[in-house]
Amino acid sequence: MLISKRARQFICQARFLFLSCGALLLCHLFSGCIRPEPPADITIINNIEPESLDPAIIVAQADMRVVEGLFDGLTRLDPKDASAIPGLAERWDISSDGTIYTFHLRTNLMWSTGEPLTSADVVYSWIRALDPKTAARYAGQLYYLKNAEEFNTGKITNAALVGVSAPDPFTVRAELKSPTAFFLDLCAFATLAVVPRQTIEKYGDHWLSARPLPVSGAYELAAWRLNDKVRLKKNPYYWDATNTQSEIIDLLPVSSPNTALNLYERGEADIVWDKELIPSELVDVLLQRPDFHSFTYLGTYFFRFNVTRKPFDDPRVRKALAMAVDKQRIVKKITRAGETTTTHLVPGGTQNYTSPEGVGYDPETARKLLAEAGYPDGKGFPRFEYLFNAASGGGKIHENIAIELQQMWRDELGITMVVRQVETQVFWGMQSRLDYSLSKSSWIGDYNDANTFLGMFVTGEGNNETGWGKPEYDSLIRAANVETDLKRREKLFQQAETILVHDEVPIVPLYFYVGINYFDTNRISGIWANLLDHHPLRSIKKTKVTP
Amino acid sequence: MSEPAQQHLSPNQHAWRRFKKNRPAVLSAWFLVLLLLAIAVWPLVLKFSGGAFAQTHNPDQLSDAQFMPPGAQHWLGTDVHGRDLFSRILFGAQISLLVGVVGTVVSLVIGVLWGAIAGYVGGRTDSFLMRIVDVLYSLPSIIFVIVLLTTLGDLLKQSHFIENSPALAGRLRVMLLFIGLGAVSWLTMARIVRGQVLSLRTRAFVEASRTLGAGAPRILFRHIIPNIFGIVITYLALTMPAIILYESFLSYLGLGVQPPMASWGTLIAEGVSQINPIRIYWWLIVFPGGVLVTTLLALNFLGDGLRDAWDVKAK
Amino acid sequence: MYFIRRILFAIPLLFAISLLAFVLMHLAPGSPFDSERKPASPEIERNLKAKYHYDEPVWKQYMRYLNDLAHGDFGVSLKYRNHTVTDIIAQGLPVSMTLGGLAFCFAMVFGLPAGFLTAARRGGWEDYAGSLLTLLTVCIPSFVIAPALVLIFAIKCHLLPVALWNSPWSMILPTVALGLYFAGKISRLMREGMLGAMQSEFITAARSKGLAENSLLLKHAVRIAILPVVTFSGPMMADLLTGSFIVENIFQIPGIGVFFVNSMSNRDHTMTMGLALLYAILVIGLNLLVDFAYTMLDPRVKYE
Fold first, then answer.
1. C84 to chain A: which residues are within 8 Å by CB?
2. Chains contacting C (3+ CB pairs below 8 angstroms)
């Protein structure tokens, strides 16, 4: 099979072309992609890539830790105990009935571009978070304002009716539906942070790519490259800039706990501050070291029952399953970071609140209850599924807990649970559609108040997701939230929680999370353990330069 | 590779003799036989021995003996739940080998036929068949796998399998996994086979056969497919580990075999987190990894040996 | 002519792929807007869906997508809502291509000679040692190799960085972790090709003409032997250049490999579509190149 001369020539040329193209490509590749940058003062490993840096969009705690540095609220959280302290607002007055807050802004407020920041910006930011077009998932944090819910859900369209206004450039007036004990804490929450109006109106959804990006917080956004880093640079126009401790901070998105640990061990990162970034199989060894810090914080691991499904519509069945769980075994064997087991939902340490006891470990009574419900020794009890999601970073905690539960119920009650793992995105959908029997759950407090936990299980609340509801419970929560007397408020919450974890048991709390971060206290200062696991970037400082 | 002529031996006997001379292949065959035997016998041993022995070696039995190093009681140590690793590896072998075999067979049958037909018939048919391969090839396989596993899984749920027989549903879900993995792995096979066929079909012996009036199927099955046997075996040997490992990757997304069931892939994935600078429970990675690698090596050498022994070209 | 036709044909092909990908994605259960924290009222979720036209029928969404595509707009990522798909790909692709290119070179440089050697010394100790080694690289998954490499070379010996992508040194371990598997695969295919070629009739003919064994093997056998490798290298290139989920994850490399998996599991439809199209273009282009290379290497192959 001979080929023609022309073809051969063509092939020769083509071969040359092919080779030179390849060579060119390689040269190009080698030169690209690596850019020299000055080293950061502090490098922090911050869990997965932020979904967004827009305060109105984010929901994840890791994202909030970054955004908090960029955009300030009327109040901000104290780095030591995470209580609300003055932020953009210097001081405030609260009306005697607790429904009208008058915030007095500092007079020297400026955007990072040097333009003045006024009360109109605050009003704009809040209204924007409520605007249906923004579609902020956390808009509910503003529902305490008068007419806010109506505006957000489209029942009214006039933003002027919402209970926030700017009588003069340095005053913000917030009118609440009812007294809200934790409103000042909410003002420090990312959703309520102050964002630049002109930039947002000019660039729309891509406003964060605008350079310069006007920010109201202690840091400017110097660079944001997906899965690479977020680089923050000190904002010289910040009202409290003299107390901003570091010039440049890098936040690396790392999802693998082993990689995070390796980077830290080799000195590539100074701080790792997410409990998900500690390899769970090493947690017991690592916590012995002085640079690993664990602390309690407001997070509960629990599981839900779908009470609309038989046989879990029967409280006796739910209680029986709850009583057969040896929680001690789970924290000793699986989680191993010194978590405390719990029978109630609201974590210990929550401000102005002590929880009542719920249902404890009692296999004897569990069997009795199950028999009463019509399933002596588990006979006739249908197989049921325990739903959980594949954890990000390939973590096995949920799976391991599920397997322990499976064994406990099989041994103690003689019933068969089937472990069912699904993709994360599918999991959230199934949970909210009540397309499950039992499902793994957890909740991290948004602010330091019992309401962030107990408010979830009001009938029909979006995060309820159990199908459970009791008018009595709802009215107790409602009463507690308008109650200004702290003692009486606690009582009301306690009564509600008793219904939840003792009488009805639509959820079974297993343990409270332990917050873990690691950094060398001899080299890094400005991070304190607190209940919200909240560590403002502005106070973090390297005390000793690495040799 | 000519051998002294032997009388009264059929081609098969010839091949068998050649095979027996290939020491690595024979060794591999023995290893695989022993492994299969162990996989088959071990559950029976557990069933009939009963008592404490069965209890400690039950692959799903949790105990307080967490992270025990290999020893007299747990021969290969235990995992985080205190489950016996030896048993888990043997039970996991069922899943992994099934995944490997079913997936590979699916990819083999579709891939070889598709590629051979495209390459041999040529022209429009070739273009058409290969464009379909192109379309599927150009779709990242992860999209295909996720969609296949989740939607079919959903259909399964809507049918009444789960209520009637959850055990069967579980098994069906695993079958789905096997087929799904096979269905995304045949494309490379088809392309390679086609490439070979393209170059084979202009060879003298094929041309000769065609002039003698042989039909397409005959040429395909008598001349072409035997000639690509070698490359197919090699590629199969490469596909099998890929499929077994893909399964473990899916478990990572929550789509693989459902716990507490194990496969070698999931066992290795569990063991990988042990590779760290602080503390290494080495048995959790060494044993599952070791048995997987040894098995795959054995399959490879065996395939090689078989190919050499029966290869038409080697005669 | 044939190749021009092929290139023209790529356009309907891309259409078919986009349609298939779109339909498949929407078949899968789960929505991009589900999350752990449920919005305070169902209206918020409705707003969110309306904003991204997720409430429209699928065919209408597809039409809208095609229309945007015609204007060069790949849309906004539904997960990373401040970034456009183009933006994300533009950031990640160069990194992934660098890594993939290096791994490809690594695989070729080690795989081809290994395959040649094991075939040429068939049955000898070089064959067994080489085969064992290359098979090991195929059988040990990269999620085991990568941490093991890090442990040995970065943690214990302090020779190379543990992760990140900020210096030429940091490229070495990911390249090896990614390339080893492909090196092994190439070597196996090369070995097989060589064995086949050495038995083919025209090599036998050449041998009978008395050509010296070595030059014979080199000159003629290699040209045929490399065919399966060439076939395989098209899709392999596509896989390598679009990055690797596992390697990028373990070494914390800002490529696009992680997005292939994450966008699908996040149900980030626009991102998945963008990546599917990118991947398709790469695969089609590289396959064309492969077929072209075929005609150069094996004169017996003709396309008409």
1. 206
2. A, B
Closest CA to B290 of B42, B118, B86: B86
Specify the length of chain C in residues.
304
User: How far is it, in rounded angstroms, from Cα C153 to Cα C155?
Assistant: 6
Is the minimum CB–CB distance between A281 and chain C shorter than 8 Å? no
**Is the bond preceding A311 in cis, omega lying within 30 degrees of 0?**
yes
**Which residues have a Cβ under 8 Å from the Cβ of B215 and sit 6 or more positions away?**
none
User: Are B269 and A285 within 8 A, CB to CB?
Assistant: no
- Going from the C-alpha of C89 to that of each of A253, A316, C97, C263, the distances in angstroms are 18, 54, 11, 12
Spatial distance between the Cα atoms of A526 and A543, rounded to a whole number of angstroms: 10
- Taking alpha carbons only, the member of C188, C204, C288 closest to residue B203 is C204
Spell out the residues 6+ positions from residue A225 whose beta carbon is closer than 8 angstroms to its own. C91, C254
Lowest mean pLDDT, pick from B91-95, B193-197, B209-213, C199-203: C199-203
ipTM of the complex: 0.84
State whether B276 and A419 contact (CB < 8 Å). Answer: no
Question: What long-range pairs does B209-218 form, CB within 8 A, spacing at least 24?
Answer: B216/B120, B216/B121
Please give the residue that has the higher pLDDT: either A31 or C118.
C118
Residues 179-238 of A with CB under 8 A from C: 205-209, 225-228
Grouping H, G, I as helix, E, B as strand and the rest as coil, residue C40 is coil
Omega before A79 within 30 of 0, i.e. cis:
no
- Of C233, B146, C293, C271, which Cα lies nearest the Cα of A226? C271
Closest CA relative to residue A181, chosen from A489, A497, A473, A505: A489
Check residues B125 and B214 and name the one with the higher pLDDT: B125
CA C214 to chain centre: 34
C43 vs chain A: nearest CA distance in angstroms? 5
Distinct helix (H) and strand (E) counts, chain C = 13, 0
Q: At what angle do helices C85-120 and C222-241 cross, to 10 degrees?
A: 150
Task: For residue range C12-70, list pLDDT tens digits in order.
Answer: 888 888 898 888 888 888 788 887 777 777 777 888 888 888 888 888 889 988 998 88
* Distance, CA of A125 to CA of A214 (rounded, Å): 14
Span A332-359, mean pLDDT? Answer: 90
- The subunits that touch chain A, with at least 3 C-beta pairs less than 8 Å apart, are B, C
Give the whole-angstrom CA distance, residue A449 versus residue A350: 6
- Our measurement of the distance from residue B280's CA atom to the centroid of its chain's CA atoms, rounded to an integer in Å, reads 30
Q: Mind giving me the DSSP string for B105-167?
A: HHHHHHHHHHHHHHHHH-HHHHHHHHHHHHHHHTS-HHHHHHHHHHHHHHHHHHTTHHHH-HH
Report the pLDDT averaged over residues A294-305: 91
pLDDT in tens, A239-256: 999 999 999 999 999 888
Cβ proximity of A278 and A286 under 8 Å: yes
Do the Cβ atoms of C282 and C235 come closer than 8 Å? no
What is the rounded CA–CA span in Å between residue B136 and residue B187?
Answer: 8
Question: What gap in Å lies between CA A33 and CA B125, rounded to an integer?
Answer: 44
**Length in residues, chain B:** 315
CA trace torsion B70, A256, B182, B161 (10° rounding): 80
| Other residues' Cβ atoms within 10 Å of the Cβ of residue B234 | 24
Angle at B237 between CA B144 and CA B129, to 5 degrees: 45
Structure letter (DSSP) for residue C167: S
Residue with tokens 């799903």: B60
Amino acid identity for residue C198 in this structure? M
Query: For A81-98, what is the mean pLDDT?
Result: 91
Distance CA C295, CA C302 (A): 7
Facing residues of A384 across strands? A417
Return the pLDDT at C29. Answer: 81
